[in-house]
Design goal:
Distance between the termini: 71 Å
Strand order of the largest sheet: 1-3-2
Structural class: mainly alpha
CATH superfamily of the largest domain: Winged helix-like DNA-binding domain superfamily/Winged helix DNA-binding domain
Number of helices: 9
Order of helices and strands: HHHEHHEEHHHH
Largest sheet: 3 strands, antiparallel
Strand content: under 5%
Helix content: over 70%
Number of strands: 3
CATH class of the largest domain: Mainly Alpha
C-alpha cells in the first residue's frame, strides 16, 4: 500500500513537470490558483492537487475533468489522479448534470464544512496514528534508565496530544454559529479564565471565615 502511494505521487509529480504552465483562467483566479498550489506543496500535497482544489473552490459551477485540464493547462491523466486524491480526503463532491454522462466535481459551499473536513482528515491521518504508537510504546516495560527517561518524555507528549484531541472532539460538535463565536473571542478567552480564577480564589478565602 505504501509503495503504491509512492508510485502514485511519483507519477503525478513527473506528469506535473511535463504539463504546460499556461492557464486559461482570468488573472485574478490564476493568482489564487498558483498561490494555493505553492501552499499545497508546503502542506505536503501535490502542487496540481492544490491548484485543482483552488479552481473548484472559486468556480461558480461544477467542472468536469476535461474543463479542469483545459483551464489549468495540465494533462487529463494528471487531473484524474489529483481528483482521486481529493476524493480520498473528502474535499470534493461528485456531481451529475442533466443529459451529460461525465462526472463533475465541486467543493462544499459551506467553508466551515471544509474546515471541519480538513481537521477530521488530518486528525485521522496524522494525530490518531501518533497517539496509537505512543500508547504502544508506553505500555512496554522499560529495560534501561534511558528507556525510562524516554517513556517519561513520551508520556508528557501523549498527555498533551490527548488533551488537544479531547478538546477537538468537544469543539467539532459545536454548531457553526457557536464555533465562530469561540474563534471570535480570541485572547478574550484568557480574560474569562482570569475571572473564573478570581471567583474560585474568593470562594476559598470565604470558606475559613465561614467555619470561624
Amino acid at each position: 500500500m505504501r509503495q503504491s502511494k509512492f508510485v502514485f505521487r511519483w507519477i503525478s509529480e513527473i506528469t506535473e513537470i511535463t504539463d504546460s504552465t499556461e492557464m486559461n483562467v482570468p488573472p485574478l483566479i490564476q493568482s489564487f490558483v498558483l498561490h494555493f498550489g505553492e501552499m499545497g506543496n508546503r502542506w505536503g500535497i501535490n502542487r496540481t492537487v492544490g491548484q485543482i482544489y483552488a479552481l473548484l473552490y472559486v468556480s461558480p459551477r461544477p467542472l468536469c475533468a476535461e474543463q479542469i485540464a483545459e483551464a489549468l493547462g495540465i494533462s487529463r491523466s494528471n487531473v484524474s489522479m489529483s481528483l482521486r486524491e481529493l476524493q480520498a480526503w473528502n474535499l470534493v463532491l461528485l456531481k451529475h448534470m442533466p443529459d451529460d454522462r461525465r462526472d463533475f466535481f465541486a467543493t462544499p459551499e459551506d467553508v466551515w464544512q471544509i474546515l471541519r473536513t480538513l481537521a477530521a482528515e488530518r486528525k485521522k491521518r496524522e494525530i490518531d496514528p501518533t497517539l496509537s504508537v505512543l500508547r504502544n510504546i508506553l505500555m512496554e516495560k522499560p529495560k534501561s534508565d534511558d528507556e525510562r527517561f524516554a517513556q517519561t518524555r513520551l508520556s508528557e507528549m501523549h498527555g498533551l496530544i490527548e488533551q488537544l484531541t479531547n478538546w477537538y472532539d468537544d469543539v467539532k460538535n459545536l454548531e457553526t454559529e457557536r464555533l465562530a463565536t469561540l474563534l471570535h473571542l480570541g485572547s478574550k478567552v484568557t480574560k474569562l479564565l482570569e475571572a473564573k480564577d478570581r471567583v474560585v480564589s474568593m470562594g476559598r478565602k470565604r470558606q475559613p471565615a465561614a467555619k470561624g
